[in-house]
Amino acid sequence: MSRLPQIYPVLNDAEVARISRFGETRHWGDGARIFSIGDPGFGMYVVLGGKIKVTRRDAFGRRIVINEQGTGHFISEVGQLSSGRCLVDGDAVGDVQAIHVPPVNLRALLIAEAELGERILRALILRRVGLIEGGSGLVVVTNENNARLTALRSFLARNNVPHSVVDTASDADIAQYVGQWAADESDYPLVLSPDGTILRAPGESELAHALGWLPEFEPDEVFDVAVVGAGPAGLATAVYAASEGLRVAVFDHRAPGGQAGASARIENFFGFPTGISGHALTARAFVQAQKFGARVAIPAHVESLDCRTSPLRLNLQNGTRIDARTVVIASGAAYRKPQIEGLERFEGRGAYYWVSPVEAKACAGKDILLVGAGNSAGQAAVYLASHARRVSMLVRGPDLKSSMSQYLIDRIASLENVDVQFNTQIVAVDGGQNIESATLSRDGQRLIRQTEHVFLFIGASPNTGWLAGCGVAVERSGFVLTGRAAAPQASEHETSIPGVFCAGDVRSGSTKRVAAAVGDGAAVVSQIHQYLARASTQA
């Protein structure tokens, strides 16, 4: 069944009238440019007369008309909820009259008009999916065997950024065209934007800053809640806090979803009997947080927390300072890097701490090694088994029962191309440009296995380095103490510093499950309300 009616629903006169109170009517003459790629987000246009032609283009000037939308149609996509930069061009066909609904009013519309808002929001999400599938927007130009490409593609995919990839090794015309910008291999991958921006081997923060992805913060702004981390706990905090009228800002150094966002399939999350990918689940929460007005800055690296000031202050790596009455630590955990000889040389180029469709595609028809015995390792093994020729799980201990859910153990046992090797570790990886072999240790003996891909899921360490010096109490392993373990008067999720709370995997004693992290996010908001109420009476 075609999804076009969901992507491009036609509003009736009564629905247009209900929307009109959220915007103002504007006019354009035939051929006028209404919005351009790279412009600040406009929100939404509802067409009253004429048509708006929507066109996508890339950095090479290639243009494809997506459609022409006339009376009763609305022009927008999900990035407009947060005033994100335009990803398409819009031009008037004939004399155009349309209702302009700016981003702040668009969010108000989605909340106030529940049934109509649901239809609009579904369309906005599906339109972004279409842009991603169409490969519009950024062009990533790589050369052969580029070590940075996989990490960059994963970053763009995790952040739902439309892009396409071209390879100079297989396209002589592209190679000649981009030669004017790339002096040598260190310049690759090049990132070309339709607005003319050219970036040479950019880091994630450099890419986001150059393309205007990050929201601006006024020096005198004070948020009710600043959330550090956009995994399940952080996003749940943002959704519940923003939906209850609190001013919320969320910061994450890489992408929405945290480690859960990289899970190929989560099958034991409440309400999804057929399972759902971690990316899909957390992407919905990300949109939901923006719908309620949370300001989300990704990627934004929080360097430190200053608890001596009132309000509290977050210091970002780019020099920005964020003031907030309360802070929620939801920074999760960083991938643990094992002591494997030669590993660092191949990280992102055959050695991975996550699995996405990018890595899975690279494993098609190959034999791979996967290290780990937890649920994340099990989910990755099941997903990779549908792409790789063979998946060998290397487990340090004697069984899986102590660390993995039974449904995953049963699923793995049913897969003919997955074998589990107990009491086995990787001690070294070797190769030239890419991994070619791995040295295993099993019962004291060394074995050599030929492989091009190694996936590592051996747990994580708490991401709490940014808390150093602020006085937040942590236990020996670095996990944050809360409740009575932190201070006699602290509420369940409050730390040793009043007004600083903690949720999710980074909290000492937490259950390392997505549902538990979401529950933490919901619980912490009620405690924030209580704290703010006490603070207001004492002021």
Describe this structure in words.
By secondary structure, the protein is of the alpha/beta class. It folds into 4 domains: 4-134, Jelly Rolls (Sandwich), CATH 2.60.120.10; 138-210, Glutaredoxin; 222-334 and 461-538, FAD/NAD(P)-binding domain; 343-458, FAD/NAD(P)-binding domain (3-Layer(bba) Sandwich). Helices cover 27% and strands 27% of the residues. The strands form 6 sheets. Strands 11, 12, 13, 14, 15, 16 and 27 form a 7-stranded mixed β-sheet that branches. Strands 1, 2, 3, 4, 5 and 6 form a 6-stranded antiparallel β-sheet that branches. A 5-stranded parallel β-sheet has the order 18-25-19-20-21. Strand 14 and strand 15 form a beta hairpin. Helix 3 (103-112) packs across helix 4, helix 8 runs parallel beside helix 9 (278-291) and helix 8 (232-243) packs across helix 14. It is globular, with a radius of gyration of 25 Å. The model has no long low-confidence stretch (mean pLDDT 92).
What is the topological layout?
Layout: H1 4-7, H2 13-20, E1 24-28, E2 33-35, E3 44-57, E4 63-69, E5 74-75, E6 89-101, H3 103-112, H4 114-134, E7 138-142, H5 149-158, E8 163-167, H6 172-178, E9 190-192, E10 198-200, H7 204-210, E11 222-228, H8 232-243, E12 248-251, H9 278-291, E13 295-297, E14 302-306, E15 312-316, E16 321-329, E17 333-335, H10 343-346, E18 351-352, H11 357-362, E19 367-371, H12 375-385, E20 390-394, H13 406-414, E21 418-421, E22 424-431, E23 435-442, E24 445-450, E25 454-456, E26 460-462, E27 500-502, H14 514-538
Parallel strand pairs: 7-8, 11-12, 11-16, 12-13, 16-27, 18-25, 19-20, 19-25, 20-21
Antiparallel strand pairs: 1-6, 2-6, 3-4, 3-5, 3-6, 7-9, 9-10, 14-15, 15-16, 17-26, 22-23, 23-24
Helix pairs in contact: 3-4, 8-9, 8-14, 12-13
